[in-house]
Design a protein that fits this description.
The chain is α/β, with parallel strands linked by helices and about 240 residues long. The protein has helices spanning about 5-10, 15-30, 65-75, 110-120, 135, 145-150, 160-170, 190-195, 210-220; strands at about 40, 60-65, 80-85, 95-100, 120-130, 170-180, 235-240. The protein is built from nine helices and seven strands.
């Protein structure tokens, strides 16, 4: 698992930077009803996306469990951040107009407690906007994906249907969706092999030590070792709380 405190200062540069963050923020904004005045970005990380979820009259705060990440987010959000576990948010019931969770649910062994907590802090009619199927979005039909396919996990915690099921148990119903390009996230064979060696894909693939060695060799044999394959297209779902 990535140590987010130590990675904080170089995290944005390794994740597509401003172009990727801007695309995510625009997609989130497009799913927010016009009457939304308060939004909490859960798992906000460095705040690069949170700070771009911006329009007149909208107040955005960030929550994250990593002090290192939150230090950067605080500077971008004018101090409107809180150190918190996404399963125990320090907000009263029904006090927020919207909650966003971008690139968060796929990291969790079970997304249900976080979805429940987001539902708790939303007012009736409030909206949760979350990325779903994150790891599947990286399957762009490339030669890299063909090698990874036999090892892809079928039990993603952020599967669209699974998240919708969790949400329904807390009075959240689908009310829209969107997609956006993950700029700068197209993998090359060399970067995929490096990620495999550093355990960067635990939520996406499951391999034994022997399988990992064989897969690394197969990745090393692909052509154009440093040419990124196409960028992924990420998906968002919007879920409205029953009135």
């Amino acid at each position: 698992m990535l140590d987010y405190d130590t990675e904080a200062d170089r995290y944005d540069a390794s994740r597509g930077g401003v172009p990727r963050a801007g695309a995510a923020a625009r997609a989130v904004l497009g799913l927010l009803p016009p009457d939304v005045r308060t939004l909490l970005d859960v798992g906000c990380g460095t705040g690069l996306v949170s700070a771009r979820i911006s329009r007149p009259g909208l107040r955005v705060a960030g929550a994250d469990a990593s002090p290192g990440m939150l230090r950067l987010a605080a500077a971008r959000l004018g101090g409107a951040v809180v150190l918190a576990d996404a399963r125990r948010l320090p907000f009263a019931d029904g006090t927020l107009d919207a909650v966003s969770a971008v690139w968060l649910l796929h990291l969790l062994p079970d997304a249900a407690p976080v979805v429940a907590e987001c539902a708790r802090v939303l007012r009736p009619g409030g909206v949760l906007v979350a990325t779903v199927d994150k790891d599947a979005s990286h399957d762009v039909g490339s030669d890299i994906d063909a090698l990874l396919a036999p090892f892809r996990r079928p039990d993603a915690s952020d599967g669209r249907a699974l998240v919708a099921g969790h949400a329904a148990r807390h009075g959240l119903r689908p009310c829209g969706g969107a997609s956006f390009t993950g700029h700068g996230q197209g993998r090359s064979p060399r970067s995929a092999a490096a990620g495999l060696a550093h355990g960067a894909y635990p939520s996406a693939i499951r391999v034994t030590e022997r399988q990992a060695a064989s897969l690394a060799a197969s990745l090393a044999a692909l052509p154009d070792q440093d040419r990124p394959r196409p960028d992924p297209v990420y998906r968002l779902v919007a879920l409205r709380k029953d009135v």
